[in-house]
Write a structure and sequence with these properties.
Chain A is of the alpha+beta class and about 210 residues long. Chain A contains 5 helices and 5 strands; from the N terminus they run ααααβββββα. Chain B contains 12 helices and 2 strands; from the N terminus they run H-H-H-H-H-H-H-H-E-E-H-H-H-H. In chain B, helix 3 crosses helix 10 and helix 5 runs antiparallel to helix 6. Classes of the chains: A alpha+beta (about 210), B mainly alpha (about 280).
């Protein structure tokens, strides 16, 4: 009896099974494990260090290259935040009253508004130091506590993160107890009360044009 | 007791106080090291529940869950004085752009940053009695004693508060406390929002607190004319502003309704300070 075809078949089957198992692991098991292993604080630190590296680059400090510098920073920042979640949360109960298209448009407007605020702040960076003090993890959410040491004062900054697929995304920042999302929610609510959602869109667009 | 004797008595008292501070400071510094380890442990074993260290952890999450469920503005402070408050907000805004900012910028140009930080340290050191008393009133004995040690050391070794010796060398960080916070600690809410001309955002509770803070500020016990006192306070403000130029502009310019944004930021900041862990 010729066993070779059988061996061939078995070995073929084996390799397929190994391959399939590897793929399943790659799709589900491994990324999840890596997210848990590296942790929110470690992930945040990597991204923040990336931003600081850009800020420290001498050749980008020239005024004519400021826009390029902003875009480089924004590329990193954009990957750190879950802007959909933030925009949704900043509208509160008003989120459900608008159409899906309006929601998508609003996410874009909201992220541009945050960009304006934080790129503006980050521009004044000189040699501030960031210390990460602790991280708290509860299921798929986490809080990372940090201190920004600026001119001898320590500014507490808390990042709130949620895990999505294999990555931790920031969905709120608290600076000196003030939550970015909650602050915008109250700000937006005061506009919506008087001018409805259309008025809010108009006001944000005006802001961004400045 | 004649004059000579009382002089020696006070020098002796100051010396005793000083020695006491050094001893307490070294104890506190050793303690702070332990605390650091605890923090790391909490970070490493976040799943463990029921440990005393986790109280703060649970509080943080409870607060977190709160705001996610919160319907719009349900926790925002009442603002029946809004029309008047808006006028004063507008007034302060103009005061900032037309007076405070140009003055602070000119001042910036004259004095280097290091000197301005030293000046701020000096004024911060004068806030220590306020923090010592209010930490104690809130039962935060440890923070109160830390603040006392800071005050004694910074006023002496730190040369009348010009340097922050306690923080730089002993890692004793300032622990903030004020009278409004103490009232909040015992359950008094802000009641209504008030935006004062010159002083800025406040509420009924914190306005009452300002009276307490006034009596806890050493400057108000110095025998000088009120004009001079005011001038010193204005100088403190100019110096502080010179170190944070740009922050106010950025915040208000990227808010849609700056009045509401400032009101909310004030409220969140104060609530956070009141809920601060021991």
């Amino acid at each position: 009896m010729n066993v070779r075809p059988i061996i061939k078949l078995i070995s073929y089957k084996w390799s397929t099974m190994v391959l399939a198992a590897a793929m399943i692991l790659a799709l589900y098991g491994v990324p999840a494990a890596s997210a848990v292993e590296s942790g929110p604080m470690a992930q945040l630190r990597v991204s923040v260090d990336e931003i600081i590296d850009i800020l420290k680059k001498e050749e980008l400090k020239a005024p004519e290259r400021h826009n390029e510098r902003h875009e480089l920073i924004w590329e990193v920042v954009y990957k750190m935040f879950d802007f959909y979640e933030m925009a949704k949360s900043s509208l509160g109960k008003n989120w459900k009253t608008i159409s899906t298209e309006e929601q998508d448009m609003f996410v874009g407007l909201f992220s541009s508004l945050v960009k304006q605020r934080y790129i503006g702040k980050i521009n004044s960076y000189t040699d501030q130091e960031i210390v990460y003090t602790k991280q708290l993890i509860k299921e798929n959410r986490a809080m990372v506590y940090s201190l920004l040491i600026d001119k001898g004062t320590k500014v507490p900054i808390i990042y709130k993160l949620k895990v999505k697929q294999d990555k931790w995304f920031i969905y709120d920042i608290k600076i000196e107890n003030v939550s970015l999302v909650l602050n915008y929610r109250r700000d937006f609510a005061s506009v919506i009360r008087k001018e409805k959602f259309a008025g809010l869109v108009e006001r944000i667009t005006e802001k961004l044009e400045k | 007791m004649n004059r000579q004797n009382s002089k020696y008595f006070f020098i002796g008292l100051a010396a005793a106080f000083f020695v006491f501070s050094i001893c307490t400071a070294s104890l506190l510094a050793a303690d702070a090291g332990d605390e650091q380890n605890n923090v790391l442990q909490v970070a490493a074993s976040t799943d463990q529940q029921g440990e005393p260290d986790n109280d703060q952890f649970e509080d943080a999450w409870a607060e977190e869950d709160n705001w996610e469920d919160e319907t719009d503005g349900s926790k925002a402070i009442a603002d029946p004085l809004e029309p008047v408050n808006r006028i004063f907000f507008h007034f302060n805004d103009k005061l900032y752009y037309w007076v405070l900012k140009p003055v602070a910028r000119g001042y910036n140009a004259i004095l280097p940053e290091d000197v301005r930080i030293v000046v701020r340290n000096f004024f911060n050191n004068l806030l220590a009695p306020r923090s010592i008393v209010n930490n104690l009133l809130q039962g935060k004995v440890r923070k109160s004693s830390e603040e006392l040690v800071r005050f004694v050391l910074n006023s002496t070794v730190g040369i009348v508060g010009l340097g922050d010796f306690a923080q730089d060398v002993l890692e004793l960080n300032p622990t903030y406390a004020d009278t409004g916070q103490t009232l909040g600690y015992y359950g008094l809410g802000g009641i209504i929002y008030i935006h004062w001309p010159f002083f800025g955002p406040s509420n009924v509770r914190d306005t009452i607190g300002m009276v307490g803070d006034y009596y806890l500020h050493p400057l108000n016990y110095v025998d000088i004319k009120w004009e001079e006192r005011t001038a010193i306070k204005v100088y403190d403000q100019v110096n502080r502003t010179s170190l944070t130029l740009g922050d106010y502009e950025l915040f208000t310019e990227t808010a849609l309704d700056p009045y509401t944004a400032v009101k909310d930021a004030y409220q969140q900041n104060r609530d956070g300070k009141i809920k601060e862990p021991r």
